[in-house]
Amino acid sequence: MNQKNHANTNDQVDDQQVDDQAVSDQLVDNQQLYDQPDDNHNVLDTLGVNAQISDVNPNDLSDLSELPELPSTEELLAQLKILSAEKDANWNKYLSAEAEMANLRRRNERDLSEAHKFAVDKFVRELLPIVDSMELGITAAIKNDHETKNNENHALKEFIVGSELLHNMFVSALVKFGVKLVDPVGEKLNPERHQAITLQPSDEYASGHVTQVVQKGYLLNERLIRPAMVIVAQ
């Protein structure tokens, strides 16, 4: 029995010695790892500590005494006054430019409107002599019919009726495009629309009034394209 207990005690002592040796070996390994300078630098490099330390330059620190002096209140007010004047000038320039653009838009709109209104100006001017010829032909036919003793000249009457119908259709087509007749018999002479070719004494009309229209005038959208040629009472 005593021999068995003695054997167990020896085994426990041996196990304790093995554990102590393992701890001692681990401490030696840790000390060797700590004593290796290259490995320590590698760890610091990995963490970026060495780079941060090397970037620090004491000479780059600014001297607080070298900071610029702040402007005084008077200087700030003077600068504010200058900036305010520049702001007002720029605002006035903007308003002027805006007004000019508005005027330009209105002029363009007016020019475009007039271009549409008077696009047929030249065409109408070319048609007016045709209207004059038709009217002269009708007037001559009516005069001839009145002077004819034989009132049964049906061919002449039919010609007059047909010519008047054609003339009315022609004038109606011109009216649709903004053409207006100027036939100022009995009206006071208007130099802007009438062209006086002669003066004649008249008992029927007052002085300065139109007694006869030699050639009718025409307006296109209220703009004169041909003045009426008239005879005026003296």
Question: Which SSEs are present, and which pair or pack?
Answer:
Elements: H1 2-35, H2 37-47, H3 49-55, H4 73-117, H5 121-147, H6 154-176, E1 179-182, E2 194-200, E3 210-215, E4 217-220, E5 223-226, E6 228-233
Parallel strand pairs: 2-6
Antiparallel strand pairs: 1-4, 3-6, 4-5
Helix pairs in contact: 5-6
Overview of this structure, please?
This protein is an alpha+beta fold and 234 residues long. Among the domains are: 84-117; 120-177; 178-234, Head domain of nucleotide exchange factor GrpE (Nucleotide Exchange Factor Grpe, Chain A, domain 2, Roll). The protein is 63% helix and 13% strand. It is built from six helices and six strands. It has a three-stranded antiparallel beta sheet with strand order 1-4-5. Strand 4 (217-220) and strand 5 (223-226) form a beta hairpin. Helix 5 packs antiparallel against helix 6 (154-176). The radius of gyration is 58 Å and the shape is elongated.
Salient structural properties:
234 residues, alpha+beta, Nucleotide Exchange Factor Grpe, Chain A, domain 2, three-stranded antiparallel sheet, 6 strands, 63% helix, disordered N terminus
CA-atom Rg in angstroms: 58 Å
Report the count of strand segments. Answer: 6
- Name the helix and strand elements from N-terminus to C-terminus, one letter apiece: HHHHHHEEEEEE
Query: Mean of the pLDDT scores?
Result: 78
Beta-strand content bin: 5-15%
SS summary, helix count: 6
Main sheet specs? 3 strands, antiparallel
Q: Kindly report the spatial arrangement of strands forming the biggest sheet.
A: 1-4-5
- Terminal CA distance reads 176 Å
Structural class: alpha+beta
Q: Runs with pLDDT <50, length 5+?
A: 1-8, 39-44, 46-53
Name the overall outline: elongated
Helical proportion? Answer: 55-70%
**Assembly annotation:** single chain
